Amino acid sequence: MYKRQIEKLFRDRILKIICATPTLAAGVNVPARRVIVAELHRFNVREGISEEIPIMEYKQLAGRAGRPKYDEYGEAIIIAPGKLHVKRLLDEYVNGNIEDISSKLDNESAMRSHILSLFATDVVSDTQSMHKFLSKTFYAYTVGSQHVQLVANRILRYLVSSGFLEENEGRFSATALGKRVAELYIDPSSAYTIISILNKRESLTAFGYLYTIVLTDDMPKLSVNRRELRVIIEKAEPYIDELPVRLNYDIYDEDDARLIAYELKTALMLNDWINEVKEEDIVDMYNVGSGDIYSYTQTAHWICYAAYELMKLLNKMNHAKELNKLYKRLADGVKEELLELVKIPGIGRVKARVLYNYGFTSLEKIAQAKDSEILKIPGIGPETLRSIRKFFEQKELIS
What we know:
The chain has 399 residues and is mainly alpha-helical. The protein has 4 domains: 2-94, Rossmann fold (3-Layer(aba) Sandwich); 104-183, Arc Repressor Mutant, subunit A (Orthogonal Bundle), CATH 1.10.10.10; 189-333, CATH 1.10.3380.30; 338-398, 5' to 3' exonuclease, C-terminal subdomain (DNA polymerase, domain 1), CATH 1.10.150. It has 20 helices and 6 strands. The protein has helices at residues 2-11, 22-27, 55-62, 83-94, 108-120, 127-134, 138-143, 145-161, 176-183, 188-199, 206-214, 229-236, 254-274, 279-286, 290-313, 317-332, 349-357, 363-368, 371-375, 382-398, and strands at 34-37, 41-44, 49-52, 75-78, 165-168, 171-174. It has a two-stranded parallel ribbon. A two-stranded antiparallel sheet has the order 2-3. Helix 13 (254-274) packs across helix 15. It is globular. It starts with a helix and ends with a helix.
């Protein structure tokens, strides 16, 4: 709705400028004479580094300018960080050729998921049918069928040894566990990491579960520069006994220590989020943007839900119970005591904490309160009150 309204206002020349995200910029279908690319660097969440965007992405952004039927020409402008960069940007981006297209299956994480899904959905049933299917993919076209077969065979052996597939006289089928992993769209390697760790422990603290999530291949890690390394390790010190794996820095080289610091920093940031540390403080402490916080917490939320479902399937109900609470906390960034209050639309982590601190510690207490009592609470205005009352009206209708 908002996107359509903005596009209409822009077409009607009421809005003169649209500041767009890359996703929106790629899909905006409005007459724009000029496109300005203010920054060619973007933070890569999965790698934890800032990197220049591909030439293809620049061409896509530039293509928004000078649309047919609207303009005789268009202008695409890159803001260079300095004079020394002008020639390089002109050669690489403006006059350069786009990168070769590569298949997503070139990533083994994607390949593992796809092969498991092929067997889980009975699309293939043996190595021959698997090879035949994969030989028709763009991946095989770019790297050759023989290479694809080698990779696929290795992954097939891994899926069998991990308990996601079973073999019977040369035919393969997904186990109940393998089918659930495929349904959850989680990397089988991530599922194996979760199961391997939790099978060895009767219980973990919230931080222990967060660290387990961070150890999976699906979870991106925050980068740590040399100056942060010691700070992160010291900040994590109180939680070391809660970790599901034992750390011994004496046996790690500098590269290993940095990788562990990546994992610890990510778990610490997630832990601060679920313990209601202010968003602006998280930004400052971990050198991330608000959008990065959302991206990391939502990814952790998805993996946590997958872990919950896997533990239910394996009848590990102690773990399932705690993971159920944790994934709800990750969604809203709250302590366990606020989970009931954030069910109300429009009540996020900040307003829920204020309500709780003013004695409204349950839905029942809020439902029984007078409007005047709720409106006295700082940050709770008429609009929020209407949202609260509407929530309870709908709750009564459902009941």
